[in-house]
Amino acid sequence: MIPQSFIQDLLNRVDIVDVVGKYVQLKKGGANFMGLCPFHNEKSPSFTVSPTKQFYHCFGCAAHGSAIGFLMEYSGQSYPDAVRELAQSVGLSVPEERDRLAPAQRAEVQARSLALSDAMTRATEFYRKQLRSAPQAIQYLKSRGLTGEIAAQFGLGYAPDDWQGLEPVFGNYRDDAIAGPLVEAGLMIESAEKRDADGKPRRYDRFRDRIMFPIRSTKGQVIGFGGRVMGQGEPKYLNSPETPLFSKGTELYGLFEARHAIRETGYVLVVEGYMDVVALAQLGFANAVATLGTACTAVHVQKLLRQTDAVVFSFDGDAAGRRAARRALEACLPYVADNKTIRFLFLPAEHDPDSYVREQGTDAFAAQVRDAMPLSRFLLQVVSEGQELRQAEGRARAQYEAKPLLQSMPAGGLRLQIVRELADATGTTPAEIEAVCGLASDPARVGRFAQPRPRTKRQAPTGLEQRVLQLLMRYPQLSSRLDADSRALLLEDEQADAEVLAHLVSACDELRGEVNFAAFSEHLAQSPYAEVYANVRAAVLREEIDEEPAEQEFDTAIAKLLAGPLRRELDMLQQSVIMGTADEQGKSRMRWLVSEINRRRQLG
């Protein structure tokens, strides 16, 4: 858990205008900055960045958040990753990381990381320059239908047919200080069996005579390479090995380049090869990405679903493609949701996406994408494939195959629908499928999906209560204007949304020093009332109000809110006087209530 105090300090040091300005062209407009929203298509700017609130807000699609939220939304990063990137930009270390390593170790790790990043950047530039003077490589790319523009967009390069081609860039391979980062980055191979005359291990380039595809992280940093042979040779694709920067099971080729297109089209297309990604981008499908020579993993799925709610996997229609699709299905199941769409596209065996588009055209391929098989249908196809459903044994086997797949899915509408379809296909009932597959933990409730324990529905705050929440969120110091009597009446009032208001007042009271609106909002977003606060925050971002008028409006709103509980208490005391049960203390309290209600009515 990253301490809230660190988040406050971090967001006090970064300027959201600088953070957003790296990705969005901003122009000054009054107190704020304006630009075209990066999260939806628009022709006139409705995207604002507030330097005073340190928040961004789009009036078109309602996207909003702090610098941390922007990096999460724009780059698809997790919360910790976004915090780490911001921290690194201002020279801070996230406490979780700082506590694990001693200062000397931490400095060593940072130095190694910088050395590896530098090596990858310099190698990328070297390979790109080599491509310009490699006619055979240029001819190969042209034969695949690629233009110079698309090659430049993806940073394609060429590794010369030289065992020590990188030496002019980095220096003598015999120097351990030079060789160390190159070996660790996967650019150089060090042979323990073969040694030079001086006894040093033989060192040579990993990539030779190959088209080079830089692999970028979601931040745009080159973390690895894929090298493709241009003629005969094995392996056809050679990837960087696992390094401190690069893990094949977690990265996706082309995701950095495809981010904008994914948002524009509303889905991501997952293909099998680097060349497919680049070719499709040129042909009008810039939202394509590829796994890096490995099966689709759970981390891949999580990354994809952070970018979009719709994923289409494209596989060859042969047996190998079906096996790859099955593995992708299994990786997806734990993350399916009723508001997510996952589909599977199987092209004819003689085609890959690139060749299909070139032969059939973009409209035909777009139609294939639209008609791709839904996850539910593919799952049912997988479990029933090869089974004779007219026989009891075949139906039982289909249920057996379905059991681990259904168990890995979260309970919800989609799983319910699949259970019903499987029941129809195997001549059983949904209740029996639940029982056979272990989806109903309580035998007495077989056939009923377990529902979460009912919770009392929290009503949305009224207009007046909502306004108090907005003013408090914008100026947390207003909580100091509530005296003890007001707090007792307001925060215990059953008619108001006292639960949320009490939480916000408490959060305001805990703040010390200058308050950063963005950091305070991030803190509230981690609370049980995050959904309420999100609506409040959106209203705050749409308005500019100075502190002095905010104080006056706050006092008036509180006076009006307190009129209700004061009036109810007065009614109870007046009733006790009528009944003859009131004591002197009650009568004294009643007189005070009358004067207090009149005073507050005048304030309102």
UniProtKB/TrEMBL annotation:
SMART domains membership: DnaG_DnaB_bind, TOPRIM, ZnF_CHCC
Domain of life the protein comes from: Bacteria
GO terms for MF: DNA binding; DNA-directed RNA polymerase activity; zinc ion binding
Cofactor field: Zn(2+)
GO cellular component terms attached to this protein's record: cytoplasm; DNA-directed RNA polymerase complex; primosome complex
CDD domains: TOPRIM_DnaG_primases (cd03364)
This protein's UniProt keywords: DNA replication, DNA-binding, DNA-directed RNA polymerase, Magnesium, Metal-binding, Nucleotidyltransferase, Primosome, Transcription, Transferase, Zinc, Zinc-finger
InterPro entries referenced in this protein's UniProt entry, alphabetically: DNA_helicase_N/primase_C (IPR016136), DNA_primase_core_N_sf (IPR037068), DNA_primase_DnaB-bd (IPR019475), DNA_primase_DnaG (IPR006295), DNA_primase_DnaG_DnaB-bd_dom (IPR013173), DNA_primase_Znf_CHC2 (IPR036977), DnaG_bac (IPR030846), DNAG_N (IPR013264)
PROSITE patterns: TOPRIM
Ranges where the Toprim domain occurs: 266-348
Root EC class: transferase
Keyword presence, Zinc-finger: yes
EC number(s) from the headed UniProt entry: 2.7.7.101
Pfam families: DnaB_bind (PF10410), DnaG_DnaB_bind (PF08278), DNAG_N (PF08275), Toprim_2 (PF13155), Zn_ribbon_DnaG (PF01807)
Self-association and partners: Monomer. Interacts with DnaB.
Domain notes per entry: Contains an N-terminal zinc-binding domain, a central core domain that contains the primase activity, and a C-terminal DnaB-binding domain.
Protein family according to the UniProt entry: Belongs to the DnaG primase family.
Protein's name according to its UniProt entry: DNA primase
Organism per entry: Cupriavidus basilensis
